[in-house]
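Appendix B, record 7
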Amino acid sequence: MLLFRRPLLPALICALLWGSAFPAIKSVYQHWDSHGLERTLPVILLFAGIRFSIAGTGLLLLGRNLQMEFQATPWKLLIGLSLTQTFIQYIFFYQSVAVSSASLAALLVATGSFWWMLLAPLIQKTSWPTPIQWLGLLIGGIGVSLAIYKPGAGAGQPLLGGIFMLTATASGALALIIFSKIKPTMSAINATGISLFLGGLGLAAVGVQALQTIPEMFDRPVIFATLWLAFVSAAAFSIWNHLSTIFPVTLLASYRFLIPVCGVLEALILLKTESPGWGLLAGGGLVIFSMLLARRTNTKKSGS
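Structure tokens (predicted):
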């Protein structure tokens, strides 16, 4: 397929989709605040669970050979993918956006690439980062620290939000490693569908105490936002997981710099309550520079 001959265009599509999730989620939170609905953890997780259950159901309806691939794939890997890609990652992701700014949360998504460079050698026995990549990790860490220190208006609790997002991106990096073991026996669409559906059910189960607030939670604007977010999850995760079956994961990790760029820009454009501080701007510049440095090294290695 022409779209997947090179990773840049589909990676950019994923980045734009994922980037839109930050202002969309934050807008839902602000909508609830304006209507007097308390944003408790059960409310947040029930909202997330419904989103991912819808996304997973849509993908499973589109998938092919699900029964055959399900029988050929170890169930422990599918449970692991559901936990890391959806359940654990988004418990902390939604909490990060709830307590800090959407633009800061978007920037910190970049730490997923840093986690990948550290976890892949330990789990998959790939080569350790080169001296230049270690330098990039150091520069990126300084950038993250600056962004958390002075994130700008609407930042809320940046340190707590940063801790939540670092945990979320670590879980996402583990999910990519688990998917690399699933892809020989299951397509990206089916694996992603199972992950989103099971993870979504788990999130909804944790948030079951908020069931009585569903009429307050889901008025028309929130329904539209939920459907959009479900589409974002289904489309972006499917494209990204499919890319990982074509290109080296280390190369894809270097394209993740597009996600924070798109997320920060979309959050700052769409949310009037947020504006960047000098820490977010300077730190963001350092994070992007560090990821470009890693991308250059990966490109030289792969010969792409």
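Remarks on this record: The first strand starts at residue 152 and ends at 153. Confidence is low (pLDDT under 50) at residues 299-304.
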